[in-house]
């Protein structure tokens, strides 16, 4: 294994140590209300991270399921996604970074730019009012549903054979991942747009996986540190996602490995499309947020 990949795995461990410390401090300060996870929370984590390991993603599907059941509150969803899916992202990063021989320079540069984007983006998202988050996520869910439909219709570029990029292609990929890191902190999964961008630049589809997994593996704990300070996430739902998600990833990678993804994408597109409509409808009906809006009480807590 190259020194760059070893350094990346070391950084993965360090940011997750910081993640655990941040979670403990959030509980000690009373920033977040500690609640027990339910079996439904764990089942959602299992199912969505199972799909995540197969390349479908977990953020849009989890948001759709949350909207269908009516909890957690919309303004808590971005933080819950980043905190709750972090454990699965850790496992995926460790497995895919070591198994797929992508250019380590591109891998490190893209992940680093996404981490910076996530840190800046999470600082904004963790303070957005409920209606702003509803509008943002509603539009993003519609985009995600469109990506699933495009993939099934063969509208995505096929990609090339390269496992690395050079010159302006390298720079463009790094810049795009900065933006995707910021969007990840807002609860918008980066998988589909990242696969499209890398395919257009000539990357082999397999080469996108360690970059996608590695981006989420380091972006999510960094973004979570912001959410730990503001308390803008649901503790019980996050713990449930983490508990179920790890088993979903391991099942997908080591047991199932392959499924009829086209049929799954059609199903996911329908569910996500419904959730997008419901989210935008909630935003339309929402009144202007007040200073005492749920989820804002602890905003800015040190």
Helix count from the secondary structure assignment: 12
Number of domains: 1
Number-wise, the strands total 0
Order of helices and strands: HHHHHHHHHHHH
| Portion in strands | under 5%
Molecular structure report:
The protein has 302 residues and is mainly α. It has one domain. Helices cover 74% and strands 0% of the residues. The chain is built from twelve helices and no strands. Helix 2 packs across helix 11, helix 5 runs antiparallel to helix 10 and helix 8 runs antiparallel to helix 9. The termini are far apart.
List the main descriptive attributes of the protein structure presented here:
302 residues, mainly alpha, globular, disordered C terminus
Describe the secondary structure blueprint for this structure.
Blueprint: H1 3-29, H2 39-53, H3 59-69, H4 77-84, H5 86-99, H6 104-125, H7 130-152, H8 167-185, H9 191-200, H10 205-230, H11 235-256, H12 261-285
Helix pairs in contact: 1-5, 1-10, 2-11, 3-12, 4-11, 5-10, 5-11, 6-8, 6-10, 7-12, 8-9, 8-10, 9-10
């Amino acid at each position: 294994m190259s020194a760059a990949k070893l350094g990346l795995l070391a950084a993965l461990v360090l940011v997750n140590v910081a993640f655990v410390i941040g979670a403990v401090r959030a509980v000690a300060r009373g920033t977040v209300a500690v609640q027990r996870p339910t079996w439904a929370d764990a089942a959602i984590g299992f199912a969505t991270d199972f799909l995540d390991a197969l390349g479908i993603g977990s953020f849009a599907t989890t948001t759709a399921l949350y909207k269908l059941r009516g909890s957690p509150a919309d303004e808590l969803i971005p933080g819950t996604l980043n905190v709750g899916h972090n454990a699965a992202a850790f496992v995926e990063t460790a497995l895919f970074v070591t198994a797929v021989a992508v250019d380590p320079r591109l891998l490190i540069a893209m992940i680093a730019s996404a981490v910076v984007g996530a840190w800046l983006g999470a600082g904004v998202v963790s303070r957005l009012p409920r209606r702003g988050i509803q509008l943002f996520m509603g539009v993003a869910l519609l985009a995600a549903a469109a990506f699933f439909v495009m993939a099934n219709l063969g509208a995505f570029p096929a990609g090339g054979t390269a496992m690395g990029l050079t010159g302006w292609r390298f720079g463009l990929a790094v810049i795009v991942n900065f933006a995707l890191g910021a969007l990840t902190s807002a609860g918008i999964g980066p998988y589909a747009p990242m696969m499209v961008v890398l395919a257009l630049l000539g990357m082999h589809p397999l080469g996108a996986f360690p970059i996608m997994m590695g981006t989420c593996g380091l972006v999510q704990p960094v973004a979570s540190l912001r959410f730990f300070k503001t308390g803008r996430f649901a503790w019980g739902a996050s713990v449930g996602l983490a508990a179920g998600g790890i088993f979903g990833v391991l099942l997908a990678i080591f047991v199932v490995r392959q499924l009829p993804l086209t049929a799954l994408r059609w199903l996911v597109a329908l569910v996500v499309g419904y959730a997008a409509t419901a989210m935008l409808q909630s935003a339309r009906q929402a009144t202007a947020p007040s200073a005492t809006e749920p989820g804002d009480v602890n905003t800015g807590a040190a």
